[in-house]
Amino acid sequence: MATDSPGERIFVGIGSNLDDPRAQVLRAFDELAAIERTRLLRRSPLYRTPPWGFADQPPYVNAVAELASDLDPRALLSHLLAIERSHGRHRDGERWGPRTLDLDLLLHGDARIDEPGLVVPHPRASERAFVLVPLAELDPGLVIAGAGPVQGLLARLGPHGCERID
85, 89, 95, 166: which is the annotated catalytic residue? Predict the structure, then answer.
């Protein structure tokens, strides 16, 4: 359902490396657009990226969605977790292991939150090319609070094997 008010500008990281990752990510865009009081503004291109954490797993397909919503961060996170579960994701597995779908709340307006189960901006967004490359595609002038401009962060880090696939 689309919102009539613009709401907060939100960025969600999307990743998958199991069960047809490209289809998982594309389906996630549609499901993000269907969240109540939320609108999908833009989606980044898809990128094939090397695995993060454990190297002995398939490559990922990653992207970023730009949303507008008047949902608060905790309510939006609940929707993201429900979408993950609908894709068969269980957050009781190994950290940085293979997954059908991973949705990370990267930025929620100018919010800075550090609570159990919710940290915004995402604490490792500035360290991951698979986040910075699609963010820079959507908004080269974007600034991650506490970390700096996306373009500068990406220039220091480099693209680290991010290969555009659409």
Answer: 89
